[in-house]
Fold these 2 entries.
Entry 1:
Amino acid sequence: MGLKRKCDLCAKDAVHHEVSIIKGQKVEKHLCEDHAAEQGVVKSFTSHTPINELLTNFVKKHSGMTTQTEIVCDNCGMTFAKFREHGLLGCPQCYTAFDAVLSPLIERAHEGATHHIGKVPRRAGPGEQRQNDLLLMRKRLAEAVAAEDYELAARLRDDLRKFEGQPS
Amino acid sequence: MNLRQLTDHAGEWLRGAGPHSEIVISSRIRLARNIAGYPFVGHASRRQQLDLLDRCKNEVMSGRLADNVLWVDLVESTDLDRLLLVERHLISRQHAQAGAELSRAVGVGADETFAIMVNEEDHLRIQVLRSGMQLSEAFDQINRIDDVLENTLDFAYSRRFGYLTACPTNAGTGIRVSVMLHLPALKLTGEIEKVRRAARDMHLAVRGMFGEGSDALGDLYQVSNQTTLGRTEQEILADFQNTVVPQIIAYEQQARQALLRQRLSQLDDRVWRAWALLTNARVMGSEEVLGLFSHLRLGVNLGRIDRVDIRTLNELFLLTQPAHLQKLTGHEMAPAARREARATLIRQRLNDR
């Protein structure tokens, strides 16, 4: 890490470094101070950023006023910036991944409502646990298929079928 | 059942029956649902799309929903068939127009009271359509369908946000309640803006008959709820049944009575001009037809003309739309030929009576 990285967008030295894993691929981002500010990326607290700028950035971030390029859903790879562009989320997990910035938007869209009080699916069981388990199992299965590990895939598929067949 | 059998009659929602059918054309409810463990449609791989399609087809065609369900694979069907389904309000334009890269389908109940779109914006868009003001009946039916499906499918759900949908504006109950209203008198007396404003204050959307972005052709307006979180399905329904629809019906009836009292000759003139044009014209555009049908429908409902009934008007309303017209005549036609065929069909049906 002794090498100084240049900004992805210009010749200046990068001060903001970000690494995310999107669909199993490592994606690196290096930005200079100007481009980091332009993209609404909040800099490290160790820099001498004035307190009011930090606060402004914080407020911006939580009111959804800026493109949240840094928030990525681990499950599907959707970024918050992309969601803002198209208005559609990538998977059910996005609700959790984008919670801090999505909740105020949802509240605004639903006249201030924050919680569901309608019908509950019978199979929801004790809550989200079953769904999270399902997501995880499907993800493992997809990975096994992608890696051509058919023995593992067959076992995971059987597990999944058994799990789905269980009454909750 | 096949698509051909759908062509030559109007579906349940255009029977012209049901409470308040002189103003409420149809009641519609849809539920947005997604299957847990999969990404939403826009993010699903080809394999996942096909997997979802298979699973949903199994459930929809299992016989647990209805004895006779028509399954239409929308990638394999023709543009004309897809447009036919849009005209019958069985799929959305978005569902019809998505490219071949999106595997998608619709399951339609034989009586056309329900349609289940698979891989539209959400994995499942369940819809129930009824003629007239029948929201309670529509809700009972859709709730039963939802219960049957969730017996075997795990729907994406969180305790906080309810049913999870691709667009967070549908999260919570995932329910969209809409009524299609015929409001010619409010339009004629210029009071329709009042309705729009009142609806907006109640956080309801007022749109044309084909939903978002469509004009109110034929004086038909669709009123639907916008918020789906923080209220129960019953509360959302109750708004429509106890407040919104009765109020709009009352406004429209007042405006109709005012027309009868104060502008009778203008009203009759409109109705009879519409009759004269529809029974004599040789070339008819679809938008012009919708406008004329609107005047005629008002005339029939107010007893100013008895040469046609609402059921015939509703059937013609559907049969004169581009895809229906082409299906009925059995061949594809350019717009100019369609305008002639449309005028001929209307003349035949109205003069036959």
Entry 2:
Amino acid sequence: MERSNARLGWLFASPYLIYSLIFFLFPLLWATYLAFTNWNLIAPDYEFVGIQNFIQAFFSESVRAAFFVTYKFLAMFVPIVVGGSLLLAVIINSLPKFKGLFSVAFFLPYLASGVASAIVVNGVLSYNSPFNIWLRDSFGLDIDWLGSSVLAPLIIALMMAWKFAGYYALLFVAGLESIPKDVYEAAEIDGAVGWKRFWHVTIPMLYPSFYTVTILAVGLMFGIFTEPYVLTGGGPDLATHTWQLEIYTQAFERLNAGYGTAIAVINSFVTFGSILVFRKILEKWGAKHGW
Amino acid sequence: MKKIRYYRLLVLLFVTAMIASGCQSESSSGEGDGSVEFDFWAAPNPSQQVFWEDMAKQYMKENENVKINVSPMPESPSSEAGIQSAIAAGNAPAISENISRGFAAQLAGSSAIVPMEEFEGYDELIQERKMEETIASWKFADDHQYVLPIYSNAMLFAWRTDILKELGFEEPPKTYAEVLAVGEKLKEQYPKKFLWSRADLVKPTWWARWFDFFMLYNGASEGNNFVEGNEFVANKEAGVQTLQLLKDLSEKDLLLTREATDPFETGQSIMMDIGPWTFSYWAEKFPEMKLGETYDLTMPPVPEGVDYENTKTFADTKGLSIYASASKEQQQAAFDFVKWVYSNPEHDLEWLKQTNLPPARDDLSTNETFTGYLDEHPELQEYANNIPNAVPPIDSEVTVEVQEVIGTEAVNPVVKGEKDPEQAWSDMTDAINKVLK
């Protein structure tokens, strides 16, 4: 009985296991091997170069830029998207009707093509857009939105927040709906109403959703490519140069596939380490408050 | 018991590995009966794909032992990346178009493509297609021809002649001094207008240099090469003059280096680097843009003392390459197909009609096959006239790095006012020499 159950378990798990082996484990092992070679992706021959690629990456200005730019994006994006999606979720949850409709409406930007939305943003921020003409004519403000090393990352962070806020709001709405009514009733009896109720009841009860959304948002920052690629090309002065842009440039434009793979390996360790740190911080914070 | 489970897991892993390795497709070759089948990758552009599909159909009718599978090349994240991935996976076609000279240098450096001149019938093809002059500048540093150019856009500058006339100029400027004189008058009369709107001038994007620096440099240097193999052979005087012009334009507030929507068409700027792909966009969105009325097309302006009549420009040009991974039979069959296509100028006319991209022929502006069509489309005439005067991209394996350096060390800082042209040229030279080592 136990054995046939185990067999059945393996049988049902096998599609995912096989998929993971083909599309995850083999490529991962292959990529790790490539990171120690000087292969250019097309030559029949290549050499094993040891840790040379990693040393080169360590001293590379653009890799360093990608490292710091990611945390810069993180500092901008995570508070905006977590706060924004929470606010959105609270508003949607308090609607008397059409909750589903509004949830889907706010979710739509997530489905939009990154290239298309980047092109739209590019148009809105262009020198002769109605918005910029109005700023110049009304206030004498001539702002080079994508040419400023401060504004360009902020615009990309805001764009990403617009795209993902609806998606994360869905997770918060699910969390809000799972809070039992009797908890609120008990809080009301104890005199917790309005903001008090929100801070002392809703937020603690939402901790699992908050934890999930924050970790998802942090992880996302290590994989940004489309928006900076289309809007800024990583500029000005590497201010929006991300890990994925660096990997793409090295592997596919400069044909340094071995080196590009080494950067990808470093990127995966940095991502893993960063997410681990954020998880620990959130867990400690949650434990401190007894959540 | 546990052992059995481990063995099963190992078997599962082995089977999975076999499945994974079996996922690679193989380009089919001859069947051993004299027939040959090969894959042709067209550019990811519907009009080009239609053209090649049509050509393949006609060819297969005449040659029943040949089967050509035409399909668009993958273009995610770029067509170059698609080709590289296919080569890496062993799925490359026998032949593909959309190959630029710089990319071909990278492919040739890894022996991924084969020299064209080694195919039987190559000289005949060059003669039949009347492209001796055009293809001469395509020769690579190792004396091979790895690409057969299909089209060549001699990049031109468009000028808003209607605005020039308002400023008192009857024709577009030909020299740098004339350009600056136009700019001065423009700022006097229209302080909010610009001479040239080009956001890429302050960006390091490597391919952007083709449409600003190389257009001007090729004009100033009379087509002098920039890099030959692993050697930096640029003409310093012409390079510094080019950068000086950019500096002068920037200092006089004649350059708009911000992203702008249709600045030339709306009259916000009066000069624009332009390729023939723009005309279909204008026909749809700006029908008021009329050659000879609102705009004119010219070759790049040149410094004083350079012969404007024989000036050069940058050639935005791509061609066909044959891949080393294909069998000898497939390679020859692919070449024979190309030779058949280009042995008839009517095919080139069909290409021109479908794509608006000028075929890479020396006789495009004189051959009667094309003159009728060009008379109906005068905006293409200037492109046709200048095909022999257009210099293709540099053929270096490190084209990307070299052109990035031109941006980061020279063009970008000069336009931003951070470096003077002499210093920028010197820094750029040092950096390029490091890249070429």
